[in-house]
Amino acid sequence: MEDVEASHLKNGSNDGEFECEFTPAEQRKIIHRIDRRLVVTVGVLYCISLMDRTNLSAAAIAGMTKELVLELPYPAGSTVSRYSVVTLVFFTTYIVFQPPSTIIVRKLGPRIHLSTIVVLWGAVMIGMGFVKDWESLAGLRVILGILEAGFFPSCVYLLSTWYTRYDVGKRYSVFYILGSLASACAGILAYGLMQMNGLQGLTGWRWIFIIEGALTCALGLGSYFALVDFPDKAHKSWKFLTEREAKFIIDRVDRDRGDAAPQVFSASKFFRAALDLKIWAYALIFFNTTTVSYALAYFLPIILQRNMGFSVGAAQCLVAPPYAFAGIVMYATGYLGDKYHLRGPIIAFNMVLCLIGLPIMGFHKSAAVRYFGVFLTTAGANSNVPATMSYQANNIRGQWKRAFCSATLVGFGGIGGIAGGLVFRTQDAPTYHPGLYACIAACCFTLVILAVMTPVLIMQNKKAARGEVELEDSDEDHQRGFRYTI
């Protein structure tokens, strides 16, 4: 990650330089230590989270669909398959249980909260390897949704409390890159686990859930020792930082946006954030993004097999290169966004990539060219996840508003997961054109939101510069001068 000039931070005001007892070199060492301990740890856990929630597609083409008869419609006579039901029931609880998670993580602390739910959902994953019917699989997916609901918004919130606004884009990118790595490697890993078919009398797809679940439990236990708390309590987390170093981080974030100090929970403060229309705009952008990214996560191996004619083994392994390419695009756009203080244009660029890739992926006659379209679509959709997280993190202030926004953002991402689990229907195989149209519409909708949001933010910044308004108002004089990031 790029070194940050921690000795000179600005928030749009005339507060001057950030004076600190540490030299610039010492400051960089502290921040890089946080990168290694915090970003890598939550990134590895997110890698497992994403793998556990999206390995259905790998199991589906490995024999689960036939064994559990998942292609039949449910209910009888409907156009929704049992497979789609199994994918979407996860999101019913995933969405509902997200808002409380950012409150709980602040009360319990990240180490206890996150490590506990990771171990528990790993146990659920192991159980999925022993189901006898599709109803049991759906029930376990509901429980998985409850447990995973607390993970992603808590991580987004935790990361935002540690970094200044123009450091966080790269960190979100690395966090999500590790998730993309999971998506890239999941198919290859699943193909390897399929070879255990017949061992202990279990079919290959069951071993995908069992082994990956056991790995999740092991990492969950280890995460208790690796995770760190919020900055105000970090010096107590296994001597991760000294009290002086923790104070440096708190002062640094406070100088940037003025919300580093913990605040007593108030329901009115938490829910008052709902009155800010920007929060719902960020949430809608995230919904559009996850509609496309989850559609790829749940159906890409199936599309590669049925639409492009690849074998089961090839379809599992060919998932990896597009996600590897997405990781490159993701970090590059995160780096540029932080360097030039841009968020909206980065999101627009990612959506344009999708709008180029989706028609190629769906309508070109050559399977090889359609596979190239998969690269563009996967890169655009997945790169937009950290880009949107950075966009909202840069343009809000206040502990509980930040907590509400994280929960709302990820909640709408869960709704996008429901949409993504339904867009590619069984009856539309092998072309899946209706699903492609839905993904194209989602990308266009994001561009429309940006076209409305950007002039509004520019206008508000100009009003603030003239002294007509105070953006994201604060009671503290030293926290004034906040400006929106376009």
From TrEMBL:
PROSITE patterns with a match to the protein in the record: MFS
Location of the protein in the cell: Membrane
Coiled coil ranges: none
Membrane topology: Multi-pass membrane protein
Keywords: Membrane, Transmembrane, Transmembrane helix, Transport
Gene Ontology molecular functions: transmembrane transporter activity
Nucleotide-binding recorded as keyword: no
Gene3D superfamilies: MFS general substrate transporter like domains
Principal place of residence: membrane
One Gene Ontology cellular component: membrane
Record has Transport as a keyword: yes
InterPro entries registered for this protein in UniProt: MFS (IPR011701), MFS_dom (IPR020846), MFS_trans_sf (IPR036259)
UniProt name for this protein: Major facilitator superfamily transporter
Organism: Lentithecium fluviatile CBS 122367
